[in-house]
Amino acid sequence: MASTATFEHNQAAIVGYRANIAERGIKNIINGEHRDAISGKTYETTSPIDNSVIATVAEGNAQDVDAAAQAAWDAFPAWAAMPAKQRRDLLYRVADLIEENAEELSLLESLDTGQPIRFMAKAAIRGAANFRYFADLVQGANDGQALPTNTHLNYTIRQPIGPVGVITPWNTPFMLSTWKIAPALAAGCTVVHKPAELSPVTAMRLHEIMAEAGMPAGVVNLVHGYGETAGKALTEHEHIKAIAFVGETTTGSHIMRQGAATLKRVHFELGGKNPVIVFADADLDRALDAAIFMKYSLNGERCTSSSRLLVERSVYDDFMDRMAQRVANIKVGNPLDPATEVGPLIHQVHYDKVSSYVTVGQEDGATLMVGDGKHPAGLEEGCYITPTLFKDANKEMRLAQEEVFGPFLTAFAFDGEDDAIEIANSTRYGLTAYIWTKDVTRALNMAHKVEAGMVWVNSQNVRHLPAPFGGVKYSGIGRDGGDYSFDFYMETKLVSIALGDHPISRLGAA
Ligand code: NAD
């Protein structure tokens, strides 16, 4: 397993995996076939480790999306009608194959995104868990309710909505793709997947694994390309009944507009600016560990990251000093090294954005404790950035309002529960919140008042697959997880059967 393997092992192992991808090129996979883009266009995907080219990628556009949507449309009736047990076993097989290929998938994911291998090894395994979890639900997916009255037997069934589009971002692309594709397939939908242009590598391997598992041609299709072309075409396509999207809030609004003409059902998992609220009575050691983990793991490129730290004033100075020591000590390095805690950011453009917030924070008047928005010494090549910590922010500042999406934390002092809630709720986002206190009544009050789709008390984000996942306000629409996913990928149909001769108004009979 890559998580326990040494850096030397990972560096040696990636050579073969990388050469294989480079030689074959990254293709679209439509109706079971690897295809170049119809236009013949390609672009290059690079590694943020050193900006070297990993492979050329088929640059799909509306024509490729049309072919993929047609394939998904044609495959839909047979896939929806496949006996549940057969569909379940196929999804189990995908999970098994992901596990068998976990080392390759996790190393390629680190290479393509810069995410540290210590986290990516688990992401591959979580991808398998997503398939296995939703495979277990296949046999009950169509179940409904019985709602009888004296005159009618009303009952509901659920049926797959049809071919769906899945559009994924670059931060943890493999895990997020499985998180969307597995429930869609379990529900009986067929899929066209448009992965982020910056992280196409493991998407191709995932689709190859699904084919190897025996997925019928056309059930799940892959089109690479840019959001403004391939992504847009997918959201506008007549055959695509719903769009499951994970990405930025502004992209979510574009998709809603683009899908309006064809009345797309949409599910959005968008940005966040999540508060972690630490009261003086909390277990401060654990709160510190969790706050650091939730902001600086996954390069801070994490929608649920605790990017705003709110600490009660009586313990603020001490807590911040301890935090600064730890943040300054975070090991930035090559993502293939298991010792690395923060790897390079996804791309130079994103690096420049994250880096610019150091100036923004200073101009706003916050206090810079750690970081300079520059490369750490010895890591001048690639997209490596020093982790940043600001304190003494107030809620009007840009670094208190805008999603930076990097290893960048903004801290505030607060005075009491009302002040904490006012700061916590002062952004347009509402994905997660984290509350640290030993006072149960306070914890419950805070959990109910904070504007977030998910709240953890005395805990970092610990995911439970049946539990609802999603945001409020500008952080999202809809919930994923367990049966919540089926509510999105399926239609509920009512069947009502008269039990006898109930009254029928006899218009025109008199
Ligand atoms: P992004 O919105 O730039 O891109 C996401 C995907 O949308 C890509 O595949 C892109 O090609 C596509 N896209 C772009 N424009 C499009 C358009 N007009 N029509 C259709 N598709 C289009 O996001 P990103 O930069 O890749 O990812 C980072 C963002 O994702 C952050 O804001 C982060 O918070 C969010 N995110 C949210 C969650 C969550 O669960 N809420 C999880 C992970 C990431």
Mean pLDDT value: 97
Catalogue the ligands. nicotinamide-adenine-dinucleotide
Alpha-carbon Rg, integer: 24 Å
Give the terminus-to-terminus CA distance: 81 Å
Low-confidence stretches: none
Highest-level CATH class of the largest domain:
Alpha Beta
Q: Any idea what the CATH superfamily of the largest domain is called?
A: Aldehyde Dehydrogenase, Chain A, domain 1
Work out the helix count: 16
Number of domains: 2
Question: Strand portion, in percent?
Answer: 15-25%
**Within the CATH hierarchy, at the fold level, what is the topology of the largest domain?**
Aldehyde Dehydrogenase, Chain A, domain 1
Would you tell me the structural class of the helices and strands? alpha/beta
**What CATH architecture label of the largest domain applies?**
3-Layer(aba) Sandwich
Q: Level of helix content?
A: 40-55%
The number of E-state strands comes to: 19
In spatial order, strands of the major sheet run 13-14-15-12-11-16-17
In this structure, how is the largest beta sheet organized? 7 strands, mixed
Tertiary shape: globular
Walkthrough of the structure:
The chain is α/β, with parallel strands linked by helices and about 500 residues long. The protein has 2 domains: about 270 residues, Aldehyde Dehydrogenase, Chain A, domain 1; about 180 residues, Aldehyde Dehydrogenase, Chain A, domain 2, CATH 3.40.309. About 40% of the residues lie in helices and about 20% in strands. The protein is built from 16 helices and 19 strands. The strands form 5 sheets. The chain has a 7-stranded mixed β-sheet with strand order 13-14-15-12-11-16-17, with helices on both faces. Strands 8-7-6-9-10-18 form a 6-stranded mixed β-sheet, with helices on both faces. Helix 10 crosses helix 11. The longest helix is centred in the N-terminal third of the chain and has 21 residues. The radius of gyration is 24 Å and the shape is globular. The mean pLDDT is about 95. It binds nicotinamide-adenine-dinucleotide. Nicotinamide-adenine-dinucleotide (NAD) binds next to helix 8 and helix 9.
